[in-house]
Design a protein that fits this description.
The complex is a heterodimer of chains A (234) and B (465). Chain A is α/β, with parallel strands linked by helices. Chain A is 22% helix and 21% strand. A 6-stranded parallel beta sheet of chain B has the order 1-10-7-4-2-3, sandwiched between helices. A 4-stranded mixed beta sheet of chain B has the order 8-5-6-9. A two-stranded antiparallel ribbon of chain B has the order 11-12. The interface between A and B is large, with 86 and 109 residues.
Amino acid sequence: MNDAGNPSTAFDTAAAKAELSAFIAALGPRTAAVAPTPLPELGEDIRDVAADGALIERFTAAAAAAGMAVHRATPASCAEVLGRIVQQLPARHVFLTAQADTALTPALAEALGDTLRRLGVRLNSTPDDETLFTVDAAITGVAAAVAETGTLVCVSAPDSARGASLIPPVHVAVVAAGQLVADLCDLRTLWRTGADLPANVNLISGPSKTADIEGVLVTGMHGPGQVHVILLDG
Amino acid sequence: MSRSREFAARVRRALADERVTAAMRGTTWRKVTARAESLGALRDPERLRDLAAQIKQHTLERLPEYLTQFARQVQQAGGHVHPARDAAAARRLVCDLARQYGLKLAVKVKSMTTEEIGLNAALEAAGVEVFETDLGEFIIQLDHDRPSHIVSPIIHKDRRQVAAAMARELGCAYTEDPIALTRIARAYLRDVFRRCDLGISGTNFAVAETGTLCICTNEGNGRMSTTRPRVHVAIVGIEKIIPRLADLPVFLKLLSRSSTGQPLGSYTTLITGPKRPADRDGPQHLHVILLDNGRADILAGPFAEVLRCVRCGACLNACPVYRRIGGHAYDSVYPGPIGSLLTPLLDAAGDHYDLPFASSLCGACQTACPVRIDLPGLLLRMRAALHGGQPWSKRAAIRLWQWAMGSAATYQLGQRAMRAFLADDGAGWTTRGAGPLSRWLEARDLQRPPARSFRQIWEEYLSRE
């Protein structure tokens, strides 16, 4: 890598800004629209799942349909459920770290770690290449989950690497029932303003998959071939 | 050879390959069924289509305003925005960026826009190694082939062709098992992802309100290519803009369903600027290239609504002509009904008058389009617009027709000629004819005209009065 080559300061010159403005201005209406199309107001009528609907049931069904395994648990039984998943895989080397604003609190991460260590699982909490390209599974929290489509919302943050839910062959996500939102429309409410958006938001709806060769569905193309969701309730 | 004969030859070649046509038929029909089922599961899919069309149309009508907002937001998030008037300018920008940052190994998200501007060859000429990372596109690259569908690029290949290409180019053991082939590609590309320094993507949607790029994939090539490299360059057609983050669900609810029949693809990635200083991973630099390449001219003309297209591929799958002849017969980056409009529009200097004729105008494409583009209407209009490109024989025939239909005398003469010369098969139909009629009647039967014309009957009636 050539890290010396970071010429980014050279890009936003006055000349570059003028060129961009001229480019955009040239796209201006050359003929006035006969009847301008208004920007529609989006109301509740585009919602497919009601905000007060049976979110756990909808999420569980949609996630399963998308090819994810949903395991119901309580905060107390979470470690036991995770232990079973890890033994079944089997995973001997696992990435695990607590994440702020997720169900994977320092206390829960500690408890999960204890259980895994007792099962002889090697743990790693630094999301560097060495770890992410070699572990058998990664355990993460989520920022939210969408009941409509069974979608996990994973965001980038100082304690939340993009690669954790992407590079290892198995992704185990810990989701609290209280983190469920009803519909994709509700995603907008997760961030107060645009400036609050993390650099990277991933809506994960199933394992990595491809059907490029003769339409045959194969999982685990680039991302995890298996996604397990531990849904904590109570 | 004239281009029209080339087109006819390509169609004949495509129809002769039974293996490909059978595979095409199976895959496209599966997608048509899956689309209908998954859209049917929405509470009000027609309302969503109305909204999607309206949001896109509104944005196109006020594009400078939204592009300005989008560019400002990208810059505020720490990214850079560059304008590219044409394909050459876009290629030059990417190559310059690679040189300035000292980048040597590029990974690409599947992107029709980069296909449109022919980026790979330019980068390779500039000394950058380029890898397509969508499985289908990777195989296309290995086999020196061209994509034949905008969503499923190797829809025209069977597993034996894939197996042969991978064994030949990667030196792996020959296998026809799709799972094994996928594993081989995964392992090969993992190594590339560990080393790459430049990620190149298009985008599905660009949100003006927040400067967010939205990239939808199933394989994770979109995530890998925008996570691993230290520089991310996104090439964004100016028509990709949507105004608000709140508009995104309208499109997300429709896109995957229209494309593959999934409620939502495996990965919908929203990128707002480069990695933040405290983030663990992600590109340190984000460059967005706004691509015109003919779009401004389309916007100003009678075909502007084609710019609503979200590249879902539903019109390809729905089209009885595409399903039969496949993508290569169109000989253009964008095949199918939408391609028959986009190709002549984006390549105005090219000779594409035949493409809008690759349609029966049945309207299946319009019924499938999530943004309600009037594809059959525009195809008709495109036929008229490209009339001058027709070969002289066809133009002369149409002139003759115009002349004959232009006066009562020649019209009646024509009717008498038809009665005299069209052969009856005995059951009241004409199934064969001489000269140019023979080709025309190959695929059509013509009902025999009645013994007496309406004019004759009317004249007799009047004389009896």
